[in-house]
Design goal:
The chain has a two-stranded antiparallel sheet. Helix 1 packs antiparallel against helix 5 and helix 2 crosses helix 4. The longest helix is centred in the last third of the chain and has 20 residues. Helices cover 46% and strands 10% of the residues. The chain is mainly α and 155 residues long. The radius of gyration is 19 Å and the shape is elongated. A hairpin with a 4-residue loop joins strand 1 and strand 2. It starts with 22 loop residues before the first helix and ends in a 21-residue tail after the last helix.
C-alpha cells in the first residue's frame, strides 16, 4: 500500500487546486498488467484511491522456465548482463561463462518471483510519470510498500 507524499494526488480531483488526476488510474492499470505477465504474478484484486493503492498478489513459480525464458522475460524489464545477452544470441561461451550465466539466471528467476521487485518497478514507473507531470523531483511515495500475507480464502 504505497501512500503519496507532499499531499500529492495519485488520482481523483484535488479539491484545493482543482487539478484532475483521474487519468493516472489508467496509467497504473496499464503498467500493472504487463508487469504481472512478466513476473508471473497474478493480480487478484486492486483498488486505487486518491493518495494510495492496494494490490492483492499471488506469486506463481518460474521454476519450469528455461534459462532463455527467464532471460527473455527479464530483458523486457531491465538489460541483462552482457554475458547473458551473448547466451541469448547463442554465441559460443566457455564452460566458466556458462556457469556465470546460470548463476545470473538464477538471480533473475528469483527476482521474477519477488513482490519487492514487482513493487519497485511499478512504483518507480508511477513516480516518474507523476513527478514529470507535476514538474517536481524527489520521492512520490512515503515508503516502498507495506505487505500482509493472506493465508486463507477468508483473508
Amino acid at each position: 500500500m504505497p501512500r503519496c507524499v507532499r499531499r500529492a494526488f495519485l488520482c481523483g480531483v484535488d479539491k484545493y487546486s482543482g487539478n484532475n488526476y483521474e487519468h493516472r488510474r489508467g496509467i497504473i492499470v496499464k503498467r500493472i498488467k504487463p508487469l504481472a505477465k512478466i513476473f508471473n504474478i497474478d493480480v487478484c484484486a486492486y483498488a486505487i484511491m486518491s493518495n494510495h493503492y492496494h494490490l492483492v498478489l499471488k506469486i506463481n513459480s518460474t521454476e519450469s522456465w528455461s534459462e532463455k525464458q527467464v532471460l527473455s522475460y527479464w530483458s523486457e524489464l531491465c538489460q541483462p548482463k552482457l554475458i547473458c545477452q551473448k547466451f541469448m544470441k547463442n554465441e559460443a561461451q566457455s564452460k566458466a561463462e556458462l556457469e556465470m550465466v546460470y548463476i545470473q539466471t538464477d538471480i533473475y528467476r528469483k527476482r521474477l518471483m519477488s513482490i519487492s521487485w514487482f513493487m519497485k518497478l511499478l512504483n518507480e514507473y508511477i513516480a516518474k510519470q507523476a513527478n514529470s507531470e507535476d514538474k517536481v523531483t524527489g520521492s512520490f511515495f512515503e515508503s516502498r510498500f507495506k505487505s500482509q500475507a493472506l493465508l486463507d480464502e477468508r483473508a
